[in-house]
Amino acid sequence: MYARKPGSLRRAESLRSELSAHEDSSKHVPALHPSLMPTRFISSGSATPTSNAYAYVPTEPSTPVAHSPQLLPSPLPIVAPPPFELIPREPLSDEDAAERRLRILLVKEKLEREADGLSCDDDVCLDAQEQENVVMWTPGDGGDDVDEEGNSCVGACFDADGSISDSESGMFEDGASDGDLKSQDSGRDEHHEETRESKFSKTPELALGLEDDFRRKVVEWIIDVLPPVIPTKRHFCAHLHDQLTTSDETRFHAAHVFTRYLLRLGRSPASSPGVAKPSKSDLEQEGQKALIWDIALACVALCVKFHRDALFPLYIILTNEFLALAPHALTDEDLETAQRDVFEALSFSLGSTTPAAFMQELWHALPSLRALLSFDDGWAVAQAEAWAVLLEALLEPDVFRFPVSLLTAAALLDGVEEAVIRKRSVQARGVARNDPVRIRKGAVRASKTVVLDVLEVLGYVEEDLACCRRWLHSGR
């Protein structure tokens, strides 16, 4: 019950090693259990587990191990991995997140075009596998000068932001001619381009059920309309005036919704060009035109409320302010009725795939675009030029042959080239300043990488972009 030896002696005996075991072999020492013996001791035939020589565990570390599967515990349960969507992943980069939002916009655009009765063949392919199979051309014709960063140059080399490099800022050198820039296999490439044709080049003009001159007049009114200025009422239409003067997106959306309304109504056989239409009296024609003006005002009101918080307690825009825009006398009930007509004709879907959404996501998704327009006001100039092209395109009757995403890409690339041209025109010296053709040619080549990136992220091919740009330039 009580200890018979001092604690120090007991501790000393517990720390005995193999050498001390040999020295005190005359004493009886309890043997270790076989399961606790080291493997090298059990496998050796020179000693048994009960011998005094191996009665104590050596001073070196020794962990017991199992000698057969029978000694192992029951099999461990198999833990199934979690579903793929629940596996933790690193956060998306800003570029990847913007590309995902672009894909969502493209899906919405496709659904809107299908609802408007436009052919599905005119839409961009949204499947990821199909996007990988799109044939894209790569830069580098073999005859261009290339700077340190791999940018193609004509005469003088420019930095990634569009500025002239220090080594070549004095004057543009004579660049190679177009014939010298062709490689030996250019014949095969030209033959390939001749055989390929954009799917948008054969799109027929769509019947809008309205005389083109009158439709163009109404669209111009939507693009240019502003509320009247009343000196005695400084705050009258202040918020409405601010929205219409600062938001090109609002005007584009209103004109686009108005044209979609005409497109929905123009599907009837009576609106087809080949069908004889009964003559209408002057009174009926005036009544029809009055209804069209009501619809145009309703489109402006809906899009202003779509893009601006126009309710209390924010930026309040009252009904009488919208009525001040009307080209003829109009009541509150007439405006509400016109807005209901627009909603019902468009199946209560005004559409959210506007050029501003595509521009914003392209800016965040493409580092090459940000690098090219990194100079002061570069992105602002490109956007302003793009909006000018897009608003002018709405005047054409066949504007719906191209999706908004393709129109935005073509107009934005024109704006990018124009911004780079302005930058280089300011920096050019000597003969180069008086040679706008060469400056424009250099700007086009500098934006080649941006063109490729835009085509890749939107899923279009070069022929589609070239067809849309030719169409935009033909209307100027």
Assess the beta-strand content as a share of residues: under 5%
DSSP summary, beta strand count: 2
Radius of gyration based on Cα positions: 39 Å
Helix count, per DSSP? 19
Taking the sheet with the most strands, its summary is: 2 strands, antiparallel
- SSE class: mainly alpha
Percent helix range: 40-55%
Which sequence of SSEs, written as H and E, runs from N to C?
HHHHHEEHHHHHHHHHHHHHH
End-to-end gap: 111 Å
Shape field: extended
Strand order of the largest sheet: 1-2
Q: List the uncertain runs.
A: 39-47, 122-158, 160-195, 268-276
Give the mean pLDDT.
75
Folded structure, characterized:
The chain is mainly alpha-helical. About 19% of the residues have low confidence. Helix 9 packs across helix 10 and helix 10 packs across helix 12. It has a two-stranded antiparallel sheet. 49% of the residues lie in helices and 1% in strands.
What would the keywords be for this entry?
single chain, 476 residues, mainly alpha, two-stranded antiparallel ribbon, 19 helices, 2 strands, extended
Topology diagram in text:
Layout: H1 7-14, H2 18-23, H3 39-43, H4 94-115, H5 128-132, E1 145-146, E2 152-153, H6 186-195, H7 212-224, H8 238-246, H9 248-265, H10 282-307, H11 319-323, H12 332-345, H13 355-365, H14 367-372, H15 378-393, H16 404-427, H17 436-446, H18 448-458, H19 462-474
Antiparallel strand pairs: 1-2
